Amino acid sequence: MPNSPTGPRVAAKPLFLCKPFVTSQLVKGSFSTIVVLPKYVDQGEWLALNVFEFFDMLNRFYGVINEFCTPRNCPSMSAGPGLDYTWLDANKKPMRLPAPTYIEYVLQWINNRINDETIFPTKAKGGFPQSFEQTCKGIYKQMFRIFAHIYHTHFDKILHMSLEAHFNSLFVHFIHFSRTFNLLEQRDLEPLRALIENFEEQGLFKDGSSSRAQQQPPQQQQQQQPQQ
User: Fold this and answer.
1) Residue 18 assigned ligand-binding role
2) CB–CB of 155/149 below 8 Å?
3) Tally of domains in the chain
4) For residue 228, what pLDDT is reported?
5) Which of 48, 149, 175, 179 has the CA that lies 20 to 30 A from 187?
6) Residue 48 has what pLDDT?
7) 149 labelled ligand-binding
8) 185, part of any domain
9) Helix (H) or strand (E) holding 219
10) Quick check: bond before 14 cis, omega within 30?
């Protein structure tokens, strides 16, 4: 018997990988048509728009479950068994933080960049800086970590509020966009690789690019920055 005193211990399958939850989405079929760069649209503008919208939507989802994400319930920024993300302090030393503190820092870190005209310009003059794509990769990596924490730690709350189709659809869109524009490395995906592979088997990434680009760490923050 699994997990019995005399039998081998078998790790329980995460709730987000169980049916029918893993097959619950708002969009049926491939997400390819909504991630491709529209004709006559500058790639920098397309990246900026989508990064902002993913950030806004993820922030809203976190706002729904943040009352359950407390220092007592989430003493570390966990993304599954054996994986805790750490934060770099002003001296670039890793710190273990409660998940709500880590996420608060990340959301503020991203918000500061999105509202910085030198990084995310809203006027045509000057265009996007050369480092813009690397900045987007750094932001994307941190957003993925929040997705991973919610899936591994708070997915039961997502289910309780009947939001699994919405959350899965947002995550599929997020991952498909990252594949199309090379925003995440393979190693970044490990905490949710099984979920991504399941979505792939369902055909949700069909016709999308699966290439990856080498990722550099996000720009240094004066006071604190995420651990890479």
Assistant:
1) no
2) no
3) 1
4) 53
5) 48
6) 95
7) yes
8) yes
9) none
10) no
Long-range contacts: 13-21, Cβ < 8 Å, 24+?
A: 14/80, 14/151, 14/152, 14/155, 14/194, 15/155, 15/156, 15/159, 16/151, 16/152, 16/155, 16/164, 16/195, 17/194, 17/195, 17/198, 21/155, 21/159, 21/164, 21/168
Residue 132 lies in a domain: yes
Structural tokens at position 37: 């760069």
Q: Is 74 annotated as a binding residue?
A: yes
Q: What are phi and psi of 100, to 5 degrees?
A: -65, -35
Percent with pLDDT over 70 in the chain: 84
Between 105 and 6, the higher pLDDT residue: 105
Would 34 be classed as within a structural domain?
A: no
pLDDT score, position 185: 95
CA 130, CA 121: separation in Å to the nearest integer? 12
| Residue 164, domain member (yes or no) | yes
Give the per-residue pLDDT at 207. 65
| Helices first, then strands: H and E counts in the chain | 5, 5
Q: What is the pLDDT of residues 5-36, one digit of tens each?
A: 554 555 678 999 999 999 998 877 677 788 99
Domain that includes residue 130, residue range: 45-226
Question: Are the C-beta atoms of residues 35 and 176 closer than 8 Å to each other?
Answer: yes
Phi-psi region of 182 (alpha: psi -120 to 50; beta: other; left: phi over 0): left
Q: Is 152 annotated as a binding residue?
A: no
Decide if 204 contacts 176 (C-beta within 8 A).
yes
Strands 84-85 vs 87-88: parallel, antiparallel or unpaired: unpaired
Rounded percentage of the chain residues whose pLDDT exceeds 90: 68
Q: What's the DSSP call for residue 9?
A: -
